[in-house]
From TrEMBL:
Gene3D superfamilies: 3.30.1330.30, 3.40.1280.10. It comes from the Bacteria. The keyword S-adenosyl-L-methionine does not apply. CDD domains: SpoU-like_RlmB. Residues 1-22 are annotated as: Disordered. This is 23S rRNA (Guanosine2251-2'-O)-methyltransferase. SUPFAM superfamilies: alpha/beta knot, L30e-like. One of its GO terms (biological process) is methylation. One of its GO terms (cellular component) is cytosol.
Length: 263
């Protein structure tokens, strides 16, 4: 359990955003514009730097802010914008990410039972948006995503979520492995939704503090995360198709948790 203190109780983390933010990630390009955006403290969703060029000041600012960046060929930048990008483009996120520790602390302080959802390398923005919509409706208190290798939170994701991403706390973590270890040490059971188990989700006790892991569209949950799971669950498939869309699978598992918690 996360220890409580009077000093923590006085804090207001404002995890649920009171009003919708602009539904589209804003593109910023050009060396000076990008540099000032990095220094402004805004949430950066993606940062692309031309592979052949050196931008020491921008790279330094990105590292200091903990913002990952990709070195890409000029052709990719030209596809993003036909304007004079000067070899660097970034996207300002339409949401504000929140620290995982803050969310968990507040959930415990409010006397609620944690129900968190981890998305391991889910890259399709529409899947991401649909999962966020279901998660918010199901009372999930935090959506946990990797800093690298996940879907971009852009206009398509916002639209598919039907506004849920304005209210559902999203935690963007450097290491999902460390995040899951932290949650497990804080009293949450770790449930991996994977075909590599014979357990049905209907046999798992979701009334206890729980974090559910959903894996990528390509190869499911990574072995590192599977090894951290306390248990796994496999949705029964009675037809000839061998798998479900990850968004549909997330809905089934989350609403089994809802069913148990509302009985």
């Amino acid at each position: 359990m996360v220890p409580r203190s009077r000093s923590m109780e006085k804090r207001n983390y404002s995890l649920r955003q009171p009003a919708p933010r602009p539904p589209q990630a804003d593109m910023v390009f050009g060396t000076q514009s990008v540099l000032e955006t990095l220094r402004s403290g805004k949430e950066i969703e993606r940062l692309f730097i031309q592979r052949e060029l050196g931008f020491a000041e921008i790279e330094k600012a990105a590292k200091e802010a903990g913002i990952p960046y990709q070195r890409v060929p000029i052709e990719k930048l030209n596809r993003l914008t036909r304007k004079n990008h000067q070899g660097v483009v970034c996207f300002v996120s339409p949401i504000r990410y929140v620290p995982l520790h803050n969310v968990l602390t507040q959930v415990y302080e409010e006397g609620k039972t944690p129900l968190f959802l981890v998305l391991d390398r889910i890259t399709d923005v529409r899947n991401f948006g649909a999962i966020a919509r279901t998660a918010e409706c199901a009372g999930v208190q935090a959506l946990i995503v990797p800093q690298k290798g996940g879907a971009q939170v852009n206009g398509d994701a916002m639209k598919t979520s039907s506004g849920a991403l304005n209210f559902l706390p999203v935690c963007r973590e450097i290491s999902l492995v460390e995040s899951i270890r932290y949650l497990r040490d804080s009293g949450l059971q770790v449930v991996a939704c994977s075909e590599k188990t014979d357990h049905s989700p209907y046999t798992i006790d979701f009334k206890v503090p729980t974090v559910i892991i959903m894996g990528s569209e390509e190869d499911g949950i990574s072995k590192e995360l599977l090894d951290l799971a306390d248990t796994g669950c496999r949705i029964p498939l009675l037809g000839k198709v061998e798998s479900l869309n990850v968004g549909v699978a997330s809905s089934i598992v989350l609403y089994e948790a809802v069913r148990q918690r509302t009985q």
